[in-house]
Structure prediction request, 151 residues.
Amino acid sequence: MFAEALQALLRVLEDRYDVRDIFPFREFSEEANGEQPTLRNNPRRSWGRLKFMHIILWKFTVREERVQEFTGAYGSDGDWAQLFRRAEGYRGTQLLRSGDDPNIFVTVDRWDSAACFETFQKRYGEEYKKLDARFEAYTLSEEKMGVFSEA
Prediction:
């Protein structure tokens, strides 16, 4: 409960202030000497926006004869990604294929925040519905696996 309240507060701060001047954003990589890097010794340290990634996962069972069309439409440069790119806060799409069943795919859509995705839905809802209807014939099933954030 406390963590959720803190995240909500930080989202408000991020929306109202340029937090690049307040909070460090750190990228860690293993050091050659095996030490865990800290803010002071991290050579890749940079300043950036404080983020709470909003990640949406979808699972699809694709018709065998439509796999090529599906991968073109749902891949990182496909029709869906092109629509998403119109919106602020979209960070990318990844298409994953099952190693057990070649007709099972998972999409991973990344957004800066839930608010960014909600704004996208409001602004581009009609285009979203049209694409969804257009590509419905490519799949046997579609399941929203859930919404996640970076831990």
About this structure: Residues 3 and 9 are 10 Å apart (CA to CA). The chain has two domains: 2-47, 54-149. The first strand starts at residue 24 and ends at 25. The radius of gyration is 19 Å.
